[in-house]
Amino acid sequence: MTPRELTLIVAATSKMGIGRGGTLPWTGLKKEMAYFARVTKRASPGSRNAVIMGRKTWESIPPKFRPLRDRMNVVITRSTGLNAEGGSLVGSVEGAVEAVAKAEAQRAFIIGGAQIYKAALERKEAKRILLTRVLSDFECDTFFPVQLDETGKTGGWERKSKEELDRWTGEQVPEGVQEENGTRYVFEMWEKTDS
């Protein structure tokens, strides 16, 4: 049994930049990080969700926050020497999907990095992207593999309404432009339009 859906969750600039030098190019977005935590943790009683990430993403999480609490952590790596205490190590997105299915996780979230996003997007289970669109401009050297532009329809993906985002996340997501520490952003949900 495999998960019915994979949801990619990402913060990206208008040019789809997601990182610089192995870290986020913006800092201090506590409300955005709280949104990420709530959405990836929210599961039915007795269930839990999974977060799937690459080794670099795992290592970018400060050790005191690893593994991400109240979620199954799955780390994709080719390295046999990685110590991902509290996380499950697998060698591919396929292996991650199998581990999540075996654990019967309620929802599976792909949380980065760029290579993991790309591999996940090639799978039929990739149905949704929760995008925090960072409106402020940052220099990036790592990019999300799909250009989700302002038109709301692009490359087999369509931006959904605020009401649909609220319903899917199970909360009233803040509407419109948010700002923290001089960085402006909006929350969006995109769904695949073709199978």
TrEMBL record:
Pathway: Cofactor biosynthesis; tetrahydrofolate biosynthesis; 5,6,7,8-tetrahydrofolate from 7,8-dihydrofolate: step 1/1
Lineage: superkingdom: Eukaryota
UniProt protein name: Dihydrofolate reductase
InterPro entries hit by this protein: DHFR, DHFR-like_dom_sf, DHFR_CS, DHFR_dom
Entry's family note: Belongs to the dihydrofolate reductase family.
Pfam families: DHFR_1
Domain spans labelled DHFR: 5-192
GO MF, any single term: NADP binding
GO BP field: dihydrofolate metabolic process; folic acid metabolic process; one-carbon metabolic process; tetrahydrofolate biosynthetic process
PANTHER family to which the protein is assigned, alphabetical: DIHYDROFOLATE REDUCTASE (PTHR48069)
GO cellular component: mitochondrion
Annotated organism of origin: Hyaloscypha bicolor E
Alphabetically ordered keywords of this record: NADP, One-carbon metabolism, Oxidoreductase
Annotated EC: 1.5.1.3
EC class: oxidoreductase
